[in-house]
Amino acid sequence: MREIEGIEEAMGVLKPHWGEIEEDFHRHNARFLALAATDHDVIGRVLRSHLVVEIF
Predict the structure, then answer these.
(1) Range of the domain at 40
(2) Quick one: 13 exposed, middle or buried, by C-beta within 10 A (0-12, 13-18, 19+)?
(3) Does residue 31 lie within any of the structural domains?
(4) From CA 38, how far away is CA 5, in angstroms rounded?
(5) Helix (H, G, I), strand (E, B), or coil: what is residue 38?
(6) What kind and span of H or E run contains 21?
(7) CA 48, CA 13: separation in Å to the nearest integer?
(8) Taking the model in full, what pTM does it have?
(9) Residue 35 is assigned to a structural domain of this protein
(10) What's the confidence (pLDDT) of residue 8?
(11) How many helices (H) and strands (E) in the chain?
(12) Distance from C-alpha of 20 to C-alpha of 42, rounded to nearest angstrom
């Protein structure tokens, strides 16, 4: 496997902030999963309505 030049330095800079980075990721991931689980019929109606309004 090829190593990425400078990865150790980048990880060294990020390491002190890793807990905050993971917390932010988990917060956004939970939001994404909640949106993905939403009823698609409702989302479809909203998107269709939006497109119709945009046309006019």
Answers:
(1) 7-55
(2) exposed
(3) yes
(4) 42
(5) coil
(6) helix 18-36
(7) 46
(8) 0.58
(9) yes
(10) 92
(11) 3, 0
(12) 34
Angle at 24 between CA 43 and CA 2, to 5 degrees: 105
Whose structure tokens read 């932010």? 24
- Residue-wise pLDDT for 1-56, tens only, equals 568 899 999 999 999 999 999 999 999 999 989 888 888 888 888 899 999 999 88
Token pair belonging to 23 = 């917390």
Query: For residue 14, what are the contacts with CB-CB under 8 A and spacing of at least 6?
Result: 21
Q: Say how far apart CA 24 and CA 14 lie, in whole Å.
A: 14
In a domain, 32, yes or no: yes
Residue 1 lies in a domain: no
Instruction: Map residue 17 onto helix, strand or coil.
Output: helix
Tokens of residue 45, six digits: 């109606």
